[in-house]
Specification:
The protein is α/β, with parallel strands linked by helices. The chain has helices at 37-55, 71-80, 84-101, 117-129, 159-164, 204-216, 230-245, 276-279, 285-292, 305-327, 335-356, 361-378, 385-402, 415-429, 433-446, and strands spanning 2-5, 10-13, 21-26, 59-64, 133-135, 141-143, 180-185, 200-202, 220-226, 250-256, 259-261, 264-265, 301-303, 448-453, 456-461. The chain folds into three domains: 2-256, Rossmann fold (3-Layer(aba) Sandwich), CATH 3.40.50.620; 305-402, Anticodon-binding domain of a subclass of class I aminoacyl-tRNA synthetases (Four Helix Bundle (Hemerythrin (Met), subunit A)), CATH 1.20.120.640; 415-461. It has 15 helices and 15 strands. α1 (37-55) links the parallel β3 and β4.
Amino acid sequence: MQIYNTMTRKKEELVTLVPGEVSMYVCGPTVYNFFHIGNARPFVVFDTLRRYLEYRGYKVKFIQNFTDIDDKLIRKANEEGITVPEVAERYIKEYYTDADALSVERATCNPRATEHIPQIIALVETLIEKGHAYPAENGDVYFSVRSFPGYGKLSGQSIEDLESGARIDPTDVKRDPLDFALWKGAKPGEPAWDCPWGKGRPGWHIECSAMSMELLGPTFDIHAGGQDLVFPHHENEIAQSEAATGKPFARYWMHNGYINVNNQKMSKSLGNFLLVREIGKEFDLEAVRLFLLGAHYRNPVNFSRDLVEQSNAGLIRIRTARERLAEAKEGPATEADAAFIASLEEYNGKFCEAMDDDLNTADAIGVLFDYARAVNTFVSEPRSKEALDKAAVLFDDITRVLGILQHQKEDEFPAEALALLEERAVVRKAKDWARADAIRDELKAMGFAVEDSKDGAKLKRL
């Protein structure tokens, strides 16, 4: 498998530290609110990478953290008159609710920053001892950026570039405007822990270094996250981790592109931060997942309702093909069955070829649509049990890797189809036969037939 390494700015063959195993750390949410569509993209993308690696036979140790101590959590707790742990606990539960709806599998471990305070303090102590960090007079501890010669290698920035853009604050307790906080001295009303420099709490960057190295070791295979984390978060992680251990930190760095909303960059000032929880009230979140995977993960993607509706229509086509396969009639084995069985290897090969090319889910989804069309044609006649079973295995393998068709019950239908069926009942009662026929045609185009009976109308998949 080739993956694009942000560090080297080129595609590289994935060669893991331990043959057959992948150690992987993905930056998770700061749990002070529901997560938005921009947050959802790395969750979905790197969940898909994990699924694919497992499909190819790797044993994957997948770590995704929760930042449960941060200025945002403290502010939220103060606004609501509750404790920071109560805020964190609430939104960790809400994260799982939305992640489950997006078919994001549970990580091997979801470490919390507050559960790793001893490891964080020990790491800061090491950095101080090695001359890479220093305590300030206010109880903060800062990393000395100039003490680490490789600073800027991930983002491609030099110390001189950073220095020219640095803001000089005469009240700053830092020795250098480029230095960043490893530890923050205690302030009234904030959670704090005892440490050699007095009470305080960890800075954001040090949390991920301490947790990833505690769970995966000083060097591991893949570190991933959104493009916005390249600088300063991941740059700072590299500096503090490698300064402490003297070893390479992550071997491969993967970053997904930004999400725009209706062709505008997501920003709080524009008010276009779309929460996944709200999107889920309008759309099947598996359709949202399909939409997020419909573009290459490194490219920017534009979120719009029209585009998600297109993904939803595609999801319905895939789902319908799988159900037709499940309902197909069995018959004697034929030459056509043997030819179709032989073609399965080709479809799987094309799927893996796309995924091996830097996780090209867009092309992989194209292979799935081609396969779904072939299945629809194949099951138009009775087929052998062997052919049907093998066709189903490949269908389930591909959709499992992509994370779709994971929790649809046999008797469930899309909300828009059920709404049309309900409207049809109303217009039939009003004897608006033209509209009733039009609705039947709309449902047929979506892949559903209407069966009328004395007990009312029901949907059936074509």
